[in-house]
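hiii so um. not sure if this is the right channel but i have a protein structure encoded as tokens and i wanna go backwards to a sequence. like what aa goes where. can anyone help
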């Protein structure tokens, strides 16, 4: 039996995630955990981490979790809906994403990601739906 890929090997299959500085620290079907450091090039006016950077972190972790829950016959996933509630600004440190599946079906999976600041406070909550892709017949 071949060894499962490490979280970083999985992350490296998503070049954009590597480009924006996402690090996966845990990756399994029931829980994906990732992080992204605060950096000025990821900010908006006033030195706040850009909402798009936060959403990209959440989407990366959601995509990994969806991929790790592929049903038989599926070959990939794609985000078809994502909703983000921003609750607190991120001005420093790192953001940790914690993703869990809420429902996995035959054609879609619904995931929830909490984005936490270093002080443990919730910066955002993301709910997304990913479609499972199947080979063309």
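sure thing!! here u go:
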């Amino acid at each position: 039996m071949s060894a499962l890929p490490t979280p970083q090997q999985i992350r490296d299959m998503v070049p954009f995630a590597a480009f924006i500085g996402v690090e996966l620290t845990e990756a399994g079907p029931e829980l994906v955990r990732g992080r992204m450091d605060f950096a000025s090039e990821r900010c908006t006016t006033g030195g706040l981490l850009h909402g798009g950077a936060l959403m990209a972190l959440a989407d990366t972790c959601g995509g990994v979790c969806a991929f790790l829950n592929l049903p038989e016959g599926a070959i990939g996933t794609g985000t078809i809906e994502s909703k983000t509630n921003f609750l607190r600004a991120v001005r420093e440190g790192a953001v940790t994403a914690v993703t869990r599946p809420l429902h996995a079906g035959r054609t879609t999976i619904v995931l929830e990601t909490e984005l936490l600041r270093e002080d443990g406070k919730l910066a955002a909550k993301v709910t997304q739906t990913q479609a499972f892709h199947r080979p063309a017949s």
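oh and The longest helix spans residues 51-67.
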